[in-house]
Amino acid sequence: MSFLNIDSVKDRTFDAIVVGSGISGGWAAKELTGKGLRTLVLERGRDVKHITDYPTTMMQPWEFAHLGQLSKEYIDANPVASRCYANREDATHFFVKDAEHPYVQEKPFDWIRGYHVGGKSLMWARGTQRWSDYDFDGPARDGFAVDWPIRYADIAPWYSYVEKFAGISGNKDGLAALPDGEFLPPHEQSCVEKHFTDQMAKRYNGTRPVIIGRCAHLTKPQPIHYQQGRAQCQNRSLCQRGCPYGGYFSSNSSTLPWAAKTGKMTLRPDSVVHSIIYDEKLGKASGVRVVDAHTKEMTEYYAKIIFLNAACLNTNLVLLNSKSSRFPNGLGNDNGLLGKYVAFHNFRTTISAEHEGFQDTTTEGIRPNGSYIPRFRNVFKQETDFLRGYAAGFGSSRATSVDTSAMGEDLKASLMQPKYGNWRVSSHMMGETIPKETNYVALDSALTDAWGIPQLKISVGYDDNDEKMIADFHEQMTEMLTVAGFTNIRTHDKPDKAPGLDIHEMGGVRMGKDPKTSMLNKWNQLHTCKNVFVTDGACMTSTSTQNPSLTFMAITARAADHAVKEMKKGLL
Amino acid sequence: MQRRSVLKNLAMTIGGLVSLPAWASGWTPDSLGAISTLSVDNEALLADIVETFIPETATPGAKSLNVHKFAMRMINDCYGEAAQTTLQQGLALVDSTAQQTYNKPFSNGDAAQRMDVLTKVSASTDPTGKAFVDMVKKLTIQGYMNSEYYLVNVEKFNMAPGFYHGCVPVSKLAVNGSK
């Protein structure tokens, strides 16, 4: 028996464990296996193999019974999941069902999740902009959070590193607030978007640039992408179904198969991580406890280093649930900050308008991208009565309509000849929210999920700063659209829209210089448990306005590089 | 079999790296499935109503494209109970209006008579009449304009390879026959 046990422990021992297989977990898996570490990748949901497990990806629009619309039964059963813009009839199989994975909303919060191999990297919106020094400097300058322990120079080479592999399209715009990257050719702006770009450059003297979005699409694949088995983006814009071409970056099409090719990766789906095991004698973490999603049986796995990439809020949950006599309040939580200072991006409001010009032009085809307005508020100096700022998406299309007043052959004839209306544009705000101690997550003291793990209690809301920012977005965008000749300008704030639908939750395990005021050091190691690395959204000290995924990728690759170097020095 | 050829093209696009997944051969063209929310008679009546909105000419009409089945599916699955009641009551109203006006079932009327009946139902003092006609007309147009026939032949829809041009002259598109 004892021999068997020893063998069993050996079988469950790896060099590294990665918890989670989404955007950051995939990168951890790729980097750690690439450096020769035998790596166990744990995913709480089912396996999703690239192409094979994208059941709707080649379906034609008319093959869906409801033309993409969600059924009433589904919406009634899943009010949270069905509010996500990407969750349509073709993608429900990738969204967590409300009832299966309950959580406690101390304040309303729409927690959107994808529990399967690849996580939300399959359903993300693929915006990928770098941060600049103005973003990493922000907290130190404004005093709204603790100082970041890193600056742009620390992460710039890692941005380049992940951009080349993932494939990011964009234009070299030369903006101080939004550094250029290693870009594949950019998508094209429509003539009305170009007009807006030109007008802004002229009227605001270059202080309010409008650019084509930077996104994780292979507009012109390079050899490294073909080596991954990926091909050119086909402009289908059906990304939420999973892309059979690997046209956009996902863990499933890119990092995970790359990690698998090393022969060093063991991917274990259906493995719900319960907690991290802390070994008091060694003074560090020795492994993780895993509940089998189906049998509910608990197994321990061991490794020298652990990368926690469960996605922001679940990473917080795992750490909070990792209790030991050394850490009674959660792993690494001597300062009581774990789960606090959660922040997000405010997507509550949009603005729309029309342009009566450009009547002789339209767009043709589909573009899985839009234009982008980088943050122009409080970038170089504090100039408003609110902290930080907002970026915005900006899209356009030439509307067509048909006259439906008749019936019979007259109606049929008019359906065959759609009439062009005005160009329509719309813009959505992506506002930075301020990390606050009162925006927190914690374990519920009574409720557990189906795997015996405490439910997460989420208490995250808007504040006055967010309201001021929304008002400023309305005011500034109205002015900008007006000077560019747009008409019928309308704002659409939704005060009832809960945080969470932005799917940009960040923080709770923030980085910082001082163990008294932060959880992680500049290498994403827990200050008080150095062989545990947190490199998903939980590590973010502040949120800035850019889509966060690219930064998670770069931070993960950087931390993995450091982890392996430290391991080789015998320091972990 | 259309899916298979799409996948074959896909496999060629990326240099034979893709093996056909299991579900590729499991496709059936009738994605609507069986819908038994209406009696056979009422289903036939609904088919004649959608055909009255968009009739067969040199090109298919709404009935032969099964737009009535699409409408039934949407009302049953997406619209809620009030709409289901409107559907049932509206069909009865169409039948009784046809009998009162022309002394024959709706389906036996010619195109002009059928249109007249629907106009009368819409103007009825019973508010269900207008709600029914508006709902079925909207679904007929939606179903027709998203049918395989319309998307392929009128819209020239092609899933892949796609493209995007940000600024093209409207006239050029009119010549090409798409919108």
TrEMBL record, chain A:
GO terms for molecular function: flavin adenine dinucleotide binding; oxidoreductase activity, acting on CH-OH group of donors. Its cofactor is FAD. Keywords: FAD, Flavoprotein, Oxidoreductase. Residues 435-555 form the Glucose-methanol-choline oxidoreductase C-terminal domain. It comes from the Bacteria. The keyword Flavoprotein applies. Belongs to the GMC oxidoreductase family. PANTHER family: PYRANOSE 2-OXIDASE (PTHR42784). This is GMC family oxidoreductase. It comes from Spirosoma radiotolerans.
TrEMBL record, chain B:
The lineage of its organism: Bacteria, Pseudomonadati, Bacteroidota, Cytophagia, Cytophagales. The keyword Signal applies. Residues 1-24 form the signal peptide. InterPro entries: Gluconate_2DH_su3 (IPR027056). Pfam families: Gluconate_2-dh3. This is Gluconate 2-dehydrogenase subunit 3 family protein. It comes from the Bacteria. Keywords: Signal.
